[in-house]
Design a protein that fits this description.
The structure holds two protein chains of two kinds. Chain A is built from five helices and seven strands. Chain A is globular and about 45 Å long. In chain A, about 35% of the residues are buried. In chain B, strand 1 and strand 2 form a beta hairpin. The N and C termini of chain B lie far apart (about 35 Å). At the A-B interface, strand 1 and helix 4 of A face strand 1 and helix 5 of B.
Chain lengths: ~180, ~100
C-alpha cells in the first residue's frame, strides 16, 4: 500500500451530492465519520480506520477483517472538511473506473449540523455503477443521523446492489 | 418536513427534480433548456427546492451546479413506508410497471 496516487482534486467532478441535517455538534459528526467505534454501527459493521493527516491511510475494514476500501487522506480540516480516496479493493476497479473521491463537509446550521457528502470522479461514470453509491449513501447517512440523535443506528436491510454489480462485472471488474 | 411536501406539491418543481434525476449536476442554463418556464420561474422553483433540501448547489470552477438530494424523501420513506414491508411494495411496483409496459 505504499503506492501513492497523485490526486488533482480540481479534476474531479461530484456525481453524488447528499446533504443531511443532524442534531449534533460538528465534533460529534467528525468523530462518527472517522472512528471505527461509531462506523461499525451505522456502516454495516465496517470499521473506519483513519490516520487523520494529509497522506495518511483511510481504510474501511470489513467485518471479516479484510480491507474493503484502501484510501488516503487528501484534505483534512477537522471538524469541517475531510476528503479521502474511496477506492474499493475489487480487482481492476480502480484501473477501470479511476479513483473515487469522497468529501465530507460539516457546517453548523443553527443548533444542528449540515453534513454534505460528495462522491466525485475524474471521468463520467455510468448511472448503473453510480446506483450502488446512491442507495448505499442514503442508508449510511440516515443511519449515522439516527445513531447521533437517538443512540441507535438504523438496521436498514440492504439488498445487494445488483445493477451496479452487473455493470462492474461487464467491465471485467472483480466483484464478490 | 412541511417544506418538503410543499416543495413536492408542484408539477413544475417535480419536473425540475425529474431533470436532475435524469442528469445530475446541471447549471441553471442547462436546466432551463427546453423548458416552457421562464428563467425567473426556474430560479424561484429551485430556491424552494433548495430550501426544502431537495436540491443542493455547489461551485465547480466557474459554474454553479445543481444536484438532486433524495435524503428528505428517503426520510419520509423511513418514517411511513418502511414498516409496510418494502419488499412487497417493490414487488407491486414492479408488477404495475410490467403490466403498464405491455399496454404501450
Amino acid at each position: 500500500m505504499s503506492k501513492r496516487t497523485e490526486i488533482d482534486v480540481g479534476k474531479f467532478k461530484p456525481a453524488i451530492v447528499y446533504t443531511i441535517y443532524i442534531a449534533a455538534t460538528p465534533e460529534q459528526v467528525w468523530k462518527a465519520l472517522t472512528t471505527a467505534e461509531f462506523s461499525r454501527n451505522y456502516f454495516s459493521g465496517f470499521a473506519i480506520e483513519a490516520n487523520l493527516k494529509v497522506g495518511g491511510a483511510f481504510i474501511a475494514r470489513a467485518p471479516d477483517g479484510s480491507e474493503h476500501i484502501s484510501g488516503e487522506v487528501i484534505e483534512c480540516d477537522p471538524p469541517r472538511k475531510l476528503t479521502v480516496t474511496w477506492n474499493v479493493n475489487w480487482p481492476a476497479l480502480v484501473e477501470k473506473l479511476g479513483p473515487t473521491l469522497v468529501t465530507y463537509e460539516i457546517e453548523p446550521a443553527g443548533d444542528v449540523v449540515k453534513l454534505t457528502m460528495l462522491q466525485s470522479h475524474d471521468r463520467d461514470i455510468s448511472d448503473d455503477i453510480l446506483s450502488g453509491g446512491r442507495a448505499g449513501w442514503l442508508a449510511i447517512l440516515s443511519s449515522l443521523k439516527s445513531l447521533l440523535e437517538t443512540g441507535h443506528a438504523l438496521a436498514i436491510k440492504m439488498a445487494p446492489p445488483e445493477r451496479m454489480l452487473a455493470a462492474l462485472k461487464e467491465m471485467g471488474i472483480g466483484t464478490p | 418536513m412541511d417544506e418538503v411536501f410543499k416543495a413536492l406539491a408542484d408539477a413544475s418543481r417535480r419536473s425540475l427534480l425529474d431533470r436532475l434525476h435524469a442528469k445530475n449536476g446541471q447549471t441553471l442554463n442547462e436546466l432551463c433548456d427546453g423548458l416552457a418556464m421562464t428563467r425567473q420561474a426556474v430560479t424561484k422553483h429551485l430556491g424552494i427546492l433548495e430550501a426544502a433540501n431537495l436540491v443542493g448547489t455547489l461551485k465547480h470552477g466557474r459554474e454553479k451546479l445543481h444536484y438532486i438530494n433524495p435524503v428528505p424523501i428517503h426520510q419520509i420513506g423511513e418514517r411511513w413506508i418502511r414498516k409496510f414491508e418494502r419488499g412487497k411494495l417493490a414487488a407491486l411496483s414492479e408488477l404495475k410497471r410490467q403490466l403498464e409496459k405491455r399496454d404501450e
